[in-house]
Queue: 2 jobs
Job 1
Amino acid sequence: MKKLINDPANVISDALLGFAAAHPELRVDHENRIVVRGDAPVRGKVGLVSGGGSGHEPLHAGFVGPGMLDAACAGEVFTSPVPDQMVAATQAVDGGAGVLHIVKNYTGDIMNFELAAEMVAADSGTQVVSVVIDDDVAVQDSLYTAGRRGVGATVLVEKIAGAAAEEGRPLDQVAEVARKVNSYARSMGLALTSCTVPAAGKPTFDLPEGEMEVGIGIHGEPGRRRVPVAPAAEIAEMLVGPILSDLDFTGGDGVIAFVNGMGATPLIELYLMFNEVSQLLAKAGIPVARSLVGPYITSLDMAGCSVTLLKADDELLRLWDAPVRTPALRKGV
Amino acid sequence: MDTEALTAWIREFARLIALNKAELTELDSAIGDGDHGANMDRGLQAVVAVLDAEPQETPSALFKKVGMTLISKVGGASGPLYGTAFLRMAAAAGEQADLAKVLRAGLDGVVARGKAGLGDKTMVDALSPAVDVLEAGGTMRAAADAAGRGRDATIPLIARKGRASYLGERSAGHADPGATSVTLLLTAAATTLGDAG
C-alpha cells in the first residue's frame, strides 16, 4: 500500500485537520467529526445535513457551504457515522425551519440516521425529515437485497435541494424537491481497479489486469458482471444502456449529465467518457441541458467512473443554476 | 437476576468479542466490509470502560448504558442493531430481570430496526432460536447451543439484508458475522448466568 498518510488509524482526523486549515470559512468540530457552514444556523432557513462513511471525498464535507449542505458528518472509512454526530450536526444547523437529512441507501446509514432522528425528536422541538437516495440501477434484485444503493444522484440532490433551501422554501417543499431529484435520477458505475482501505492495507477485491467490473458500488460492492476491458465507447454503452432502459428520459427538458470519477481516473479520461455518453444521448434523442464532469463521489483510489442522468425540468434547471459556494462546487458567485 | 451477574455477562461478552475479533473480521471480509470485529471490539471496550467508571445499580440502567454506548461507538449497522436490542432489553427489564422476556424484547428490537426475518442470514437467525429455547423453559446453555446451531445454519444461506445482499449467491458458504457475534453474547450468558432461565 502506497498512500500519503501517517498512521492508518488517524487518516480521518488528520484529513479533517487539513480540511479545517484549507477552509477557514467552515467550522470543523473535530471531536464529533462534523463540518458545519461558517454562518450556521441560518435563521429561518431549512438546514441540510448529510453524511456517511469517509472515502468518498469530496462528498459530503466538500459540499458544505451556501447553496448546498449546512453540515456533513464523517464516519470511519466506508462505515456510517454514529447518531451522536448526526444529532450534533442537526442541532448546529437548526435555524428554526427544520432540518433535512439526506441519507444514502445503505443499511448502516439508514439505521444511524433513523436513530439520530428519534434522538432529536425525544430531545428537542427540531423537526427532522429524511430523504433516502437510491439511484444505482446496477442493483436488480431489490426484493432480495438491501435495495438500490445511493450513488451519483446524492451530489445532484445536495446541490438542488440546497438551492431550494437557500430560496427560503419550507421543509416539506425542500424534501419534495430532494425526492423528485432522486426519483428522476439513475446511475451506473464501473471499476477498472479495486480501492485500498487504509486500515486494511490491501485491495478490497481482486480485479485482474485486463478485466473490469460493471455495476460496481462505491465501497467495492460487486457489480452485475465482470468483463474484459473494452474501449470507452463500449463502456459508455454498458453504463448508459441500463440507465435508459430503467427510466424514460425523453419528452422533458433534457438531462443533467454527470460523469463522475471514482478517485484514480484522470480528468482527461472522464472528458473522453463524457463525449461517448453525450453521443449516445444524442442518438437516443435526449438533449444534454447541463453537465458535470469530475471526481465528486469517489471510492478512495479506485479507477473507473459512473454515469448519472437526471431528467430535468424548468424548476430543477433553475435550482441547478443557482449560486453555490462550497470547497468542491462553486458557481454563480 | 442481579445487576452484578448481568454486568459480569456483559464483561464476558466483551472478552469473547476481543478474543474472536480476527475471526469476526475474516467472516465479514468474506461477505461484508470486513469491519465487524473491529467495530464491535471498539464498542465493547468502551462499554467496559464506562462500567468500570460508573457501576450500574439496576438491570434496566445497565442495559440502557450498554445500548447507548454501543450506539455511540460502534457505527455501521451493528451499532444501531445491538444498541436498539439493549435499549429494548432495558425497557423490558424490571427489578427482577426475566431473561426470556428481556431477550425477546431485544430480538423484537433487532427485527424492528433491521427489518430482517428468519433466514435472511442475519443476527436474527441466531437470536431467535435462543429466545425460543428460553421461553420453552430451557437453560441458558441450551439457548447458547441453539444460537450456535442457528449461526451454523446461516452458512449455506444467501444474504438478503445489509451489504452482503449485493453478493447474491456469492454470499453462500460463509457464516453470518452478526449471527456469530450473537452466539458469543449467548455463550457469555451461559458462562456467567449459569442455568438461570
Note: The interface with chain B takes residues 75-76, 78-84, 106-108, 111-112, 114-115, 139, 141, 144-146, 149, 197, 199-200, 217, 219, 221-222 of chain A (CB under 8 Å).
Job 2
Amino acid sequence: MPANPDGPDAGRLAPARGTPPAERLLNLVIALVNTSAAMTKQQVRAGVAGYGDAPSTEAFERMFERDKDTLRALGIPIVTVDAGGHSDDVGYRIDNDAYALGPVDLTPAELGVVALAAQLWSDKTLRTDMSRAMTKLRAAGAGEAASDAVAGLAPRVRAAGDAYVPLLEAISERRDVSFRYRAASTGQELTRHVEPWRIAARGSGWYLVGFDRGRGAPRVFRMSRIAGRVKVGSRPGAFDVPAEVDVDAMLGARVGAVRRARLAVVPERAQALRARATPADGAGPRSDGRDLLDVEYRSLSAFADEVAAYGQAVVVVEPDDLRADVVRRLTAASGLDATAGAGPREEEEHRG
Amino acid sequence: MAERADDRLVRLLGLVAFLDDAGPVRVEELAQRFGVTPQQVREDVDALWVSGTPGYMPDDLIDFDAYSLEGGLVALTQARGMTRPLRLGTREAVALVAALRAMHASPAVQADPGRASVVASALDKLAAATGEAASAVDVRLAGDGDPQVVAAVTSALGEQRRLHLRYVNAADVASERDVDPLRLVTQDGSMYLVAWCLRAEGRRTFRVDRILAAQVLDTPAAEHDVRDPDADVWASVAHEAAPVATLVLASAGRWVAEEVPAESVRDLPDGSVEVRLRVTNPAWLRRLLLANAPDVLSVSPPEVARDAASAARDALAAYGPAPGGTPAGRA
C-alpha cells in the first residue's frame, strides 16, 4: 500500500478509504472466490478492502448483510459454512461450481435475437435485470449481435407492476402470498391468500394464476388490481404446484367452441370484419341491400364488443344471444346523452 | 445519474472474464461490447487494477499491461481467479427465457421458418446454459392478423422492401397506399406496423388486424428520417394536445381503463373508476363507447356522449322491431 494515503491518487490506491460500493463488492467477490475454506465476518471486516470504512460494528453488519443480498440477487452463489455453532464462526464463500454461466456459444444472429428479447419488458426492474443479463452474456464472449434475423420486430409487453418481483420470488420458492385485491364485480378490496403458480401475460394484461386458500379453489388475479404490497410467506416449499397448469383455460381466453354468426353488413363497411368472413350460403338478396356474411368467433362478449362498435353498419341476424348482447350495448349507448343517472346495470361475465 | 453499484460490479466482473478469454482488446471495442463510453472502460480498468485478494500487495491484485493500455489496448495479465463468466440470476434467466419463448410462439416469428429456427436455437442455448426451465412466467404476444398479411409485412421488413397495403382505419374507411415498413410492434394485445406512408408523407401506425391485404413490392424501401420508430403506438390515437374526454366506468368496466391510453385513472369511493383520455380520433372513442356502454356511467364533454348515443340509436333503428313485436333491446 502506498505510504501516503492522502496523495493525489488516494482514491485509486487506497481502497480502505472511501471505497466506492462497486469496488467494495468486487473485492468481496474476489476474496470469497479465492478463499481456501471460508471467511468469517471478522475476516471480511479486517481484510476486505472497503469494509474498514464502516465506523461501527453495527454499520459493518448492515453493510455486509446488504452486500450479501446484492450479490445473491445478481446470481452470485454465496454459501455459509458453519464451522462450530457459534455465530461468529460462520464462514462465507462463493460456490465456484455454481458461479459460472454454462457454455452458451451464441451465434451473432442468436445474440441479436436475445438482445431483442431483452427489450420485451417495460418495467424498470425488469429492464435493469435484462441489461445486466446482456452484460453477462457479452462477457461470456458472444460475438457482435446481428439483428438481420429479427429485423424490424419490436415485441413489447406492458409493465407488470410492483407485484411482479415478490410474486416471482414466491413462485420460485413456493411460498404463499397475501395481498389486497380489488374485485372487478364489486370494486371492493379484500385480502386474498394465494399459493402462486404462474405469472402470465395475455393481451395487455398481467395475471397471477394460483390456488386461492380463502376460496379453496384455483383462481386468476389481474395483477393491476393488486393494491399495495404483496406479502410473501416465510416458509419455502409451502405447497406443490400442479404438474399441468393450463393458464389459457383458467383465463378463459380461448375456451369454448368456435361459433358462427350471421351478420347483415352495409356494403363497403366493416372491412376488417369482412376480411374474416365468408359469404353466407343459401341466403337470398336482402331488401335493405345489406350483404349477408358469416363470421366465426369464440368469445361472445369480445365479439359483441367488436360488432357493437360498428354501430349501424353491422346488424346481427343470428345467433340470438349475440344479437341480444349487441342490442344491450347499443341500448345502453343510446342513453349516454341522457342527463338522468344510468339505470341498474347487469353484471357482465368475467372479462379478465 | 450515478450508475448503480450492482450494475457496475457485473460489468467489472464481465470485463475480467471476457479479457481473460479474448486476449488484448482495444478500449473502443470493449466500450461498444459493454455499451459504455471508452472513458468508462478506462475507469473500470483503474478500479480493477486496485482490486484483488486481501492483503492487496502487488501480487494480490488484478493486473493489466500498462504499456499496452497507453496505446489503447487492454491486456489482462492477472485475473485473480475471476476467469469465468458469471451466471444469470434467477430473475434474469426467467425473464429472458420467457421473453424468448413468447417471441418464438409469436406469429411475426412463426411467419418465417428461418427466423423461427434462429429464435428456437437461441432459446435452447439460453435455457440449457441457465438451467432455467422457466415455467413461472408465461407470456403470450398478441397476434390477431391475417397470416398472409403478417408474412408479407415481416418479409418486407427483413428484405427492406416497399409494401402495398389495403387498410381500413378506425372510422371504417378503406384505402390503398404504399408504405416503407419501419417496425412491427407487438403491444397491448395487438400488432402494429409502423411505417413511412408515401401518400401521407409521414410516419403512420397501422393495426395489423385491419390490414386487409399486403403485397411486397420489388421497390426497395427508401431511407426516411423518422425520429423514433419505437415510440409508443398509442401516439397514433392519443396526443397531449388533443381534447380531453372523461369517462366514469362501473367497477366491471375497470379493464377498459387498463387497456386504453389513459392520461389518468382515479378510483372513486363507490368502486367506480374515472378515466381521462386525450383522443385525437373521434371515431376511435365512439367505437370504445358503443362497445362498453353498459359499464359507462357518465361521459363528458356532452358532445362526445351525444355522438355515441346518436350512433347507437341509428344502429338500434337498423335492428327494427324485434321478432314478436317487442321493441329492440328487450329481446
Note: Residues 244-319 of chain B form a domain with the Alpha-Beta Plaits fold (CATH 3.30.70).
